[in-house]
Amino acid sequence: MKIKTTLILLFLGMFLVSFVSADTQQLTMRFFIPDGEELNFDNLRNFEHYVGEDFSKYITASSSYDISSYWLNDTSTFNIGEITGLIENISNLNTIEKYWLQIFVNDTSGAEINETFFINVKEKTATNICLYKKFGVYNTKLPFMKEVNCV
């Protein structure tokens, strides 16, 4: 049995190999060999957020290939734009809670990565503003009174 082998370069990193026997049966195999450029997240980090406010942040990734899609492991509270990477809350963030999310991204070569991050929803602390009112006369022997009101 004679076997003829053909190797065709389709594009960088993708090879198509055909094996053809003498009796015209053909077997084709496709191989992907990475070019060394990795798929990476550009700006993934943990987030601090406040109760009652809407959450909206872009997560981006880069690769030598085009980015195909983004997705999250849990979409009950947050949604992500499949093409844009924009994460937004889809339910009210009215409770103090830390949301642990796993984000996935893949590129057109078929490479996929994922990372875990959190969105910490916390209570906004009130800022105390204190106003001082001074009463009395400084150059006499009258008592001095100071009133402090904090809001």
Provide a quick synopsis of the model.
By secondary structure, the chain is mainly beta. It has strands spanning 3-11, 14-21, 26-32, 40-41, 47-50, 56-58, 61-62, 67-72, 78-80, 86-89, 97-107, 112-122, 130-135, 145-150. It has no helices and 14 strands.
Describe what you observe in this structure.
This protein has 151 residues and is mostly beta strands. It folds into 2 domains: 3-32, no CATH class; 40-122, Immunoglobulin-like (Sandwich), CATH 2.60.40. It has no helices and 14 strands. The strands form 5 sheets. It has a 4-stranded mixed beta sheet, with no helix packed on it. Strands 1-2-3 form a 3-stranded antiparallel beta sheet, with no helix packed on it. Strands 6-10-9 form a 3-stranded antiparallel beta sheet, with no helix packed on it. β9 and β10 (86-89) form a beta hairpin. The chain is elongated. The chain starts with a strand and ends with a strand.
> What's the β-strand tally?
14
Secondary-structure element pattern, one letter each: EEEEEEEEEEEEEE
What is the architecture of the largest domain at the second tier of CATH? Sandwich
Specify the structural class: mainly beta
As a percent range, the share of helical residues equals: under 10%
Within the largest sheet, what's the order of strands? 5-12-11-8
CATH class of the largest domain: Mainly Beta
And the CATH topology of the largest domain? Immunoglobulin-like
Oligomer category: single chain
Q: What is the mean pLDDT? A: 79
CATH homologous superfamily heading of the largest domain: Immunoglobulins
